[in-house]
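Fold this sequence, please.
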Amino acid sequence: MTDPRADEPLDQKLLQATLLSEIGRVARNLGQPEETFSSVMALVGRVVDFNVGGMAFLEVDTLEILLQLTRPVPPAVVEEVKARLQEAAARDHGSPFATVRARVVGPPPEAAGAEETTLGALACFPVVTQQAVTGILALGGGSVGPLEPDTERFLGTVANLAHIVVENSRLWERVRNLSMRDSLTELYNHRHSIDLVSNEVQRVGRYQESFSILMVDVDHLKDINDRHGHPAGDAVLRELAQILKETLRTVDSVGRYGGEEFIAVLPHTSYDEARLTAERLRQKVVARAFRAGLAPVPVTVSVGVATYPSDKVDSANTLIREADLALYRAKQGGRNRVA
């Protein structure tokens, strides 16, 4: 009679080969880093059942941590995994990191099972590149427990491959962001800002909605550059970019239109609502203490508002034109105002 256990090593090898192949398939379909990470961790979950999976990326002075929850866990458990990963990474790095960033993904809506109130075990698998630790794969949960030697060796292989796949996705995202971001303010650049307006015109056309844009211009920026130098002018633009991000909603988008001009896209926003947002922005700029070194620098903005669809506005180009005309009226009216 054949012993059914005789086939177990073969089945295990087949599973391992299949998982490595599927991780390779994920690598060929790079998406957002979180999506790629979740796909990879779902495959790892077929080898070891875990509640919190983590991947750490060690750079020169920065540590980035991605965490995947497969089941609901209390915040204290998440924080413990972060702390232990950070401790392990600092030990492998040889010193603490100046910057630590962490993102948490999940748990998925279909996640089942009772919430575990403690972490239980945490297994870590370092990723070594050119004799230096560049990453760590971590699996935590009460069901992780002691692992078989074969499983540990396989997870070491998985850790290296998974790190490469997710790191490639992170690099892809960085390159993509560089192609659409303004290097000074880190807002969207001119080209991508125009694309956002065009895309919103198409979207609201399908759903018979409306949206508005703001054209924002720094008043007398040339005077600031002449009096305090271009670095001071650049600092004003960066600070204004921060005020825009603080003032606008998460659904809004903002870009540097060019020079001292910014453009904000406000979905589901009427003309009157957009004017209120513009006025709130104007007041925040007036209240902000801008400085060039120790010297105070008074800064104000003029804002033009336009809404799609409306009179004379039936396309992205005419919308931007109307916002520009409104901005011109605000400047002609004395600056530091909304039109």
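The radius of gyration is 26 Å. The longest strand covers residues 132-141.
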